[in-house]
Every structure is written in structure tokens, then in C-alpha cells.
Amino acid sequence: MGSEFEELSNDADIISKIQQFREATIRIDDTIKLALNPATYETLSNTDKVEYNLLLSYCLNSMFWMYLRAEGTDPAKHRIRSENERLKKSMLRAKQINDRKTLMPRINKDAAQRFVRNGLWEIKKKDK
Questions:
Q1: For 43, which DSSP code?
Q2: Helix (H, G, I), strand (E, B) or coil at 103
Q3: CA angle at residue 50 from 48 to 54, to 5 degrees?
Q4: Tens place of pLDDT per residue across the chain (128 aa)
Q5: Cα(35)–Cα(30) distance, rounded to whole angstroms?
């Protein structure tokens, strides 16, 4: 009788995991539908579009990685690994470019004009 109980608990665990998996896939599907909305994409700046495209590519590759794992294939020996590494490098490069833009010194035009104006002084002549 103990083995029947173990089988029932194993079945309940499997059913629970399948339900969790189904709920996760529904959430992923909803997120992908939202992410692929063209109206949302058009409102993004060029920098945000680059980040969006890289993130979407990485997410899709990660989903394929999970698919391979579910099929029993070792993704570490699959081409997807090199593709994920390429995307990571691209993400790092995009971050470096974005950081360069934000860390680049900017000139405050008004302050520069004040410095120049105050730096150019003239000797006043005394009236005789």
C-alpha cells in the first residue's frame, strides 16, 4: 500500500509541475505578444531599440536553450551556445557605447561664455 501512495504523490507532483510549466508558458506568450507590438517599438529611441533587439534575441535563444534541455539534448554542445556568447558580447559592446555617451564631457555653453567674458578684461584709462 505504501508504493501506491508514493505513485499517487509522484503523479500529483508531476501534474503540479506540468501546471506550473503551462502557466509559465502562458506568461511568456503574453510577454512576447506585448514585446512584439510594433506600436511600442516605434516609440523607442535608437539606443533603446538596440537594447530591445539584443534582449529579445537573447530571450529567444534562452527559450531555445530550455527547449533543448527539455528534449534531453546538451545545449552546451549545440550551436546555440556560441550564439548566446555572441549576443553577450554584443550586449557588452552596446553597454560600453551607451556608457561612453553618458560619461562624455559636455560643455555648458552659458558657463563657457561667462568664463571668456570675465577672462577678457580691459584696463580702464584714467580721465585726466
A1: T
A2: helix
A3: 115
A4: 455 556 656 788 888 888 998 998 898 888 878 777 888 888 888 888 888 888 888 888 888 988 898 899 998 889 998 998 999 999 999 888 888 877 767 778 888 888 787 777 666 666 65
A5: 9
